[in-house]
TrEMBL record:
Gene3D superfamilies: NAD(P)-binding Rossmann-like Domain. Belongs to the short-chain dehydrogenases/reductases (SDR) family. SUPFAM superfamilies: NAD(P)-binding Rossmann-fold domains. InterPro entries: NAD(P)-bd_dom_sf, SDR_fam. It comes from the Bacteria. It holds the Pfam family adh_short_C2. This is SDR family NAD(P)-dependent oxidoreductase.
Length: 295
């Protein structure tokens, strides 16, 4: 079988006048999905601060217009491209619309994702009592749309001299997450995909990495962060003892997107306050009893 990988890398190490210049992204064209709020909105703002023009996507147009306004306040261009990525072909269509609007793509931050929900409420039940509907809801957005988006992004990213694809996974993708099995499996799938594509596309000049946040204070975790017993119990299992903020994730994304990470591909950057460090559960340190009912 012939080897599809070119014999030589496409580019040499980039040169910069000083180290801070390697963190700039002036004139780069970036798409951020799930940019209507939370981590995605913070990513759009961080990339704009570094000099990117942005395409911002999610389902809620009004909230995207708000994100676009904060990008423009930072002196960068923003285009709003609404999409429901749970539809089978939506991700590919979105990539092409964003590339058309920006004249190409250098950076794709695929951040849209979901827990299983019933209305606005996350559904956390033992796996043997969960149903197929919730599995399909989570996997179709978190994993199937990711695959579709990566497939479509390739044709645009290979045309860039500074291509970076970043998948927003979760610490649930690198450790056990009982009662969140569908979510955890989809997030582990994203990590696996990032690693495989990083190697497959390395000599085409496309870096692919995953970010795995722990407990971050957003709409997705509003119920947990807003319920004292749950919040206290969760943070008691975080060595750093607090919630993370969306901006802390966005700065890690900015690093991965920038030429400062020029040798970094196939990596999973875990931002969890120490949760996933072996013994990060603070074995031996007294904690509040679990607020969850035993199945
Ligand atoms: N918060 C945490 O503790 C945490 C931890 C680890 C990983 N993460 C991951 O980080 C990412 C962002 O989460 P977040 O905490 O910022 O959650 P969030 O506040 O609920 O934001 C989710 C984003 O995804 C968009 N979205 C949801 N369903 C969509 C769909 N079908 N099509 C297109 N866009 C959709 C939402 O916008 P619309 O509703 O307008 O569509 C929103 O912009 C997710 O992938 C999540 O799994 C979060």
């Amino acid at each position: 079988m012939s080897n599809p990988v070119p014999a030589a890398p496409r580019s040499a190490a980039p040169q910069f006048p000083d180290h801070l210049a390697a963190f700039r992204l002036d004139g780069a064209r970036a798409l951020v999905t799930g940019a209507s709020r939370g981590i995605g909105r913070a990513c759009a703002e961080a990339l704009a601060d570094a000099g990117c023009d942005l395409a911002v996507s999610a389902r809620t147009t009004a909230a995207l217009i708000d994100t676009a306004a904060t990008v423009e306040q930072r002196g960068r261009r923003a285009v709003v491209v609404p999409a429901d990525l749970s539809a089978p072909t939506a991700a590919g269509h979105l990539i092409d619309l964003a590339a058309d609007a920006l004249g190409g793509l250098d950076i794709v931050v695929h951040n849209a994702g979901t827990l299983p929900t019933s209305g606005d409420t996350p559904v956390m039940v033992p796996f043997h009592r969960s149903d197929r509907t919730h599995w399909d809801q989570v996997v179709s957005l978190n994993l199937n749309a990711t695959a579709e988006l990566c497939r479509a992004a390739h044709r645009h990213l290979i045309a860039s001299r500074r291509a970076s694809l970043i998948l927003m996974s979760s610490v649930a993708g690198v450790m056990a997450a009982p009662m969140m099995e569908a979510y955890a499996a989809s997030k582990a799938g994203q990590i696996s995909l990032a690693r495989s594509l990083a190697v497959a596309w390395a000599r085409q000049g496309v870096r692919v990495n995953a970010v795995s946040p722990g407990w971050i204070r957003t709409a997705m975790t509003r119920h947990a962060s807003g319920t004292a017993a749950v919040s206290d119990w969760l943070t008691s299992h975080v060595p750093m003892g607090r919630w993370g903020e969306p901006e802390e994730v966005a700065r890690a994304v900015l690093f991965l997107a920038s030429p400062a990470a020029s040798l970094l591909t196939g990596h999973v950057l875990v931002l969890d306050g120490g949760v996933s460090v072996p013994d990060g559960g603070l074995a031996g340190i007294p904690k509040p009893s679990s607020p969850f009912t035993t199945p």
